[in-house]
UniProtKB/TrEMBL annotation:
Organism whose genome encodes this protein: Hymenobacter segetis
Protein name: Proline--tRNA ligase
Cell compartment(s), UniProt: Cytoplasm
Record note on domains: Consists of three domains: the N-terminal catalytic domain, the anticodon-binding domain and the C-terminal extension.
Superkingdom: Bacteria
The family this protein is said to belong to: Belongs to the class-II aminoacyl-tRNA synthetase family. ProS type 3 subfamily.
Coiled-coil regions listed: none
Length: 491
């Protein structure tokens, strides 16, 4: 194996970047600001996709696909949305190249091939989707319209980091239309719950559900709901958002329906999404200085079997291992049998540890003769000998235990790094000395929020949904505050 990873303590950012590359998740591409998601990383994303897609369909949503390009006039139609994304847009201005007469073998943009109207490469799809919904909705019978798409989007980023911030990334975006505001708000809250359930049950990632402040709200939304997670360096990461759009996009694109009384009204909208940023959250929330720690529910390989043998023994040993492998597969467990004869067992152990495989079985003829199997769990590195007779059931239960333990460990970390603070001095000290979630009072004004952000680089992550209001005094201005907000520095 290559040299050891940098430790989290030494340089958290370098540790993250190196781990993503060395574990085979992703790498930088020839296109500045864009990444290549490698097969092992994409396998994790596929498992995320599959699970989320099932959850969306269980809640009545259907998948569709809309164009990558958005005419600028459509993009401009909802002013707040257009203004919010304008600085991040990639724009297509020409439709053809030609050979360069001054540089043989080279190409240039054909100056005569300028588009009549520029095309924005979608940073988000509200504009193109709502312009389409105008043709799909005429009557209350056409509602609700519950559509999701899996797609790529482009947001021009100058400072990029694999998975967390890239110029192009993969995501899903749901866009729904409803007859009433109440239905749309219920949809927004329902999808937030879906995201929270996915994060906690599958990613083993505890999250805080909350509402964004107007300063942090999605451009063009009436309300933005979010789930916020805490990473091991004490920074927050927004893991998913769900937006109540009111009638803003319906009015911008004139999406109306005839209600049961025959009166025409504008529909009410929502949009919601999660992206490959979740991959970054998965790495940063659970992994250690030896490599990835993957929750079994999202691990591409849940169990790796490493045969331990002497020269000439491998084929006979593989025949004896096969029933164990088949038994695990029959239980729906993904298994990798690492029978490479080009690497020593120690190399294989380190490689699969780096890749975060939850359970490792090291099996030799002597172990099988004794009716035992050596088992190592990735989350705690605990090594144990388990009876061969019960090995399939034992490993199945062990995967469940690992999933639970990874979640509990992350939950305990969050609890230990969530602090109630009452003074601005303490707030600033904690951010520097013991970063994490800070629960603090502020007066709710944009001015105070901006001042805190400018002076400390911390932002209001959310106003929590499931915690009781508690009146207090703003730590900055001394004005009344109806409730505490979650603050943190963030990705």
């Amino acid at each position: 194996m290559s040299k050891k990873l940098p430790t989290r303590q030494e340089d958290y950012s370098l540790w993250y970047n190196e781990l993503v590359k060395r574990a085979g998740l992703a790498e930088n591409s020839a296109v500045r600001g864009c990444m290549v998601i490698k097969p092992y990383g994409y396998a994790i994303w596929e498992k995320m996709q599959r699970q989320l897609d099932d959850m969306f369909k269980r809640t009545g949503h259907e998948n569709a696909y809309f164009p990558l390009f958005v005419p600028k006039s459509l993009f401009e139609a909802e002013e707040k949305n257009a203004e919010g994304f304008a600085k991040e847009c990639a724009v297509v201005t020409h439709y053809r190249l030609q050979t360069d007469p001054d540089k043989p073998g080279k190409l240039r943009v054909d100056p005569n091939a300028k588009l009549e109207e520029e095309l924005v490469v979608r940073p988000t799809s509200e504009a193109i989707i709502w312009s389409t919904y105008k043709n799909w909705v005429q009557s209350y019978r056409d509602l609700p319209l519950l559509i999701n798409q899996w797609a790529n989007v482009v947001r021009w980023e100058m400072r990029t980091r694999l998975f967390l911030r890239t110029a192009e990334f993969l995501w899903q975006e749901g866009h729904t239309a409803h007859a009433t505001a109440e239905e749309a708000v219920a949809e927004t809250r329902q999808m937030l719950d879906v995201y929270a359930e996915f994060a906690e049950e599958h990613m083993a990632l505890p999250v805080v559900k909350g509402v964004k402040t107007p300063n942090e709200r999605f451009a063009g939304a009436e309300d933005t709901y979010c789930i916020e997670a805490l990473m091991q360096d004490g920074k927050a990461l927004q893991a998913g958002t769900s937006h109540f759009l009111g009638q803003n996009f319906a009015k911008a694109f004139d999406v109306q329906f005839a209600n049961k009384e025959g009166v025409r009204e504008h529909v009410w909208g929502t949009s919601w999404g999660v992206s490959t940023r979740l991959m970054g959250a998965l790495v940063m929330a659970h992994s250690d200085d030896e490599g990835l720690v993957l929750p079994p529910k999202l691990a591409p390989i849940q169990v790796v079997i490493v045969p331990i043998y002497k020269t000439g023994e491998l084929d006979a040993l593989l025949e004896r291992i096969k029933p164990i492998q088949m038994g695990l597969i029959a239980r729906g467990i993904s298994v990798k049998l690492d029978a490479r004869d080009t690497e020593r067992p120690g190399f294989k152990f380190a490689e699969w540890e780096l890749k975060g495989v939850p359970v490792r079985l090291a099996i030799g003829a002597r172990d099988l003769d004794a009716g035992m199997v050596e088992v190592v769990r990735r989350d705690t590195k605990e090594k144990m000998s388990l009876p061969l007779a019960d090995i399939v059931a034992s490993v199945d239960q062990l995967l469940t235990d690992i999933q639970t333990n990874i979640y509990e460990r992350a939950k305990n970390f969050r609890a230990a790094h969530t602090t109630r603070v009452d003074s601005y001095d303490e707030f600033k000290r904690m951010l520097d000395e013991e970063p994490g979630f800070l629960l603090a009072h502020y007066d709710g004004t944009s001015e105070t929020e901006e001042r805190i952000k400018e002076e400390t680089k911390a932002t209001v992550r959310c106003l929590p949904l499931n915690e009781a209001d508690e009146e207090g005094i703003c730590m900055v201005t001394g004005k009344p505050s109806p409730r505490r907000a979650y603050f943190a520095r963030a990705y």
